[in-house]
Write the structure tokens for this entry.
Amino acid sequence: MDPAAAKLIGAGLASIALVGAGVGIGTIFGNYLQGALRNPSAAPTQFANLLLGFALAEATGLFGLVVALIILFVF
Amino acid sequence: MIEAAYAAEEGAHGAHEGGLPNPMHQFEIKRLIPFELFGFDASFTNSALFMVIGATLITLFTMYAMRRRALVPSRLQSVAELSYEFVANMVRDNVGTDGMKYFPFIFTLFMFVLVMNMLGMIPYSFTVTSHIIVTFALAAFIFIGVTLIGFIKHGAKFLKFFVPSGVPVVMLPLLVVIELISYLTRPVSLSVRLFANMMAGHTMLKVFGAFVVALGFLGGWAPLAFMVAFTGLEILVAFLQAYVFAILTCIYLNDALHMHH
């Protein structure tokens, strides 16, 4: 295989990691909304945890994106 | 072939012949004042320039806003008090009242990251936090400082932090290794989170900006509308990442000070 083509395919495969970030963010916001609608008075107290969970979930996906960008631009 | 395309960076946006502009061109570090110190390259770069601008902005803002110290605050003083209260509550909730002596550090950290992220949202400016060396330096200092605080406060007992309580002895060799690895990856995850968020957002904005130009007057509206929405999201992310950076520092500090496991 042409090394340039292999590099592009590898970068594309590495960015599949973002699927996990999407699932994670969806789960976090979905469950927060579910909990908030059941018990609206407790919702504001958990907003900080929501943002924290969102950032943690998004970061793991972005690690994969960083790998893709390293493959594309460093090698 | 790709190397040749990237090597031929020309024009204001690093556009190469017949293609879209290179989205990574915006992260290029330029030497503004070349300078060498003991054989190391210590030039004043555009990255350093934006750090100086950010630090000056924060200093001027806090000093100017608090110059009167009125009981009934003016609008500017309210903003300064709001940011103070925001970080103070964060420290109080996550570290406790005995952690308030680390408040100046957390406040400086939060304001620095926030202003750096926000300055990066101005077109044609430079995002300091989109370089891993900057975020990793911050995270490494936090990691070393927090570990030292833990050892100074608890002495050798701080090592018990890596031994989870209430688990069978058979499991301990495995769990201690896992705890140790998760502790040691903290600076990496803390720095890569901020850096990756900033870099990914700015790269995406640049790519979609190129689509607007490429599609022209007739078709460019769709990516332009997306870009407007995405810029709003990026401003949210810029704040959120500064918040997460500061709150994770608080959590690490709390682990070192109180060690409940």
Summary: Chain B touches chain A at residues 1-2, 6, 24, 93, 189, 192-193, 195-197, 199-200, 203, 240-241, 243-244, 247-248 (CB under 8 Å). Confidence is low (pLDDT under 50) at residues 1-12 of chain B. The two ends of chain B are 54 Å apart (CA to CA). The beta strands of chain B are 31-33, 36-37, 40-41, 44-45.
